[in-house]
Amino acid sequence: MRFPKFLAVLAASVLLLSGCGYNDIQIGDEQVGAAWSEVLNQYKRRADLVPNLVEVVKGYAAHEKDVLTRVTEARARVAGIQASPELVNDPQAFARFQQAQAEMGGALSRLLVVAENYPQLKADANFRDLQAQIEGTENRIAVARQRYIKAVQVYNTTVRVFPNNLTAMLFGYKPKANFAVADEKAIAEPPAVRFDAPRAAPAAPGRN
Q1: What is the pTM (predicted TM-score) of this model?
Q2: Which of 32, 64, 144, 183 has the smallest set of CB atoms within 10 Å of its CB?
Q3: d(CA 55, CA 63)
Q4: How many structural domains compose the chain?
Q5: For position 118, which CATH number holds?
Q6: Spatial CA neighbour of 94 closest among 49, 158, 39
Q7: Which domain holds residue 173?
Q8: CA 58 to the chain's CA centroid
């Protein structure tokens, strides 16, 4: 007689949790996690391309130390942030991550603009390949970020509406951090990169 009662209690609990949005919260949490993983993958791919790009640029524009240093330092700041799945649950840490990535993007864009002044660099096969990879990665970052933003919007709405908010409170589910697009744009301010007509290379120091 006890076993059927147990099943009845279990069934009632399942129905209660389902009606209070527990399953929806779980689904949303998984979707946010998957979207965040893709964001991290694309940002990592961009960071992995930076050292090779810096080395290629050095071969033609070693005296552009300021730009090269900024890119290297920006990459170091990105690498210094522990980008874990739990980061989305810490708004302050997420904001630091976003700022570091924005600065990385801005420094990288400025480096590519500098390359416009060096026709031989622009003609280098390795540089062209790295430039194409970076541009493709930037596009994938944009797509991954949009998917993450939408996933978080759905999840945050789910945990805030009644009666889901009671279930979320009971099990400790809180709204997750999201990208502030306007803030990132203000931080990065990446200049437009155009490689139309090549310019003459700057004269070497000491020459007329």
Answers
A1: 0.78
A2: 183
A3: 13
A4: 1
A5: 1.20.1440.20
A6: 39
A7: 21-188
A8: 27
